[in-house]
Amino acid sequence: MSKQTKLSRIISTIILGIILVIGGVISCKHSHTIEGQGEGDTVAASEFEPQGAEKKLSINLNSITSVRFPKYKLSKATPIIPDSISMAADEETVSSGNYAATLILDTIPNKDFYDRVDAAAQHDTCWSINKFAYTYLHRDKQGGMYKIVFSKGGTQIFVTHVNRELAKIATTPGKEKGKKGKKAKR
């Protein structure tokens, strides 16, 4: 009897093993057919493209500084990616609001333009003027920070903008709107 009991245990174990293997194969095939029913992508490839890559950066110096600038065009714009933020460089674009841009004036500004800037600087504490260097530091309504720099007689204007989150991190020396002197009048 003992041989017969051992043999029946072995046979029942083999049968149970075969049933488990068949059940496992059937469940894997069943789940594979449910997940793989659509032969196409589950997420469109356009979802993985950099966001805002096709949006062109528009900088209106008149609305930022309240000074009418001569005609200019955007030469170069690059996103600012600080070391303190963990982000893939290819995912960051200028449309995020953190950028450094170079604008090129169509002509060298005349004396009237520099007179307008000097007059604005007397009423707006955001302006800082040295002999040949003009700097404008200004917080926008959303809490971001603009920095506009150009030199007298030059045709390049350098514009930097960081959004509110980076403006808190960045410490920019110089005058900021409302911090020194009287409040700016516009």
Automatic annotation (TrEMBL):
It comes from Prevotella histicola F0411. The chain crosses the membrane at residues 7-26. Keywords: Membrane, Transmembrane, Transmembrane helix. The keyword Transmembrane helix applies. This is Lipoprotein.
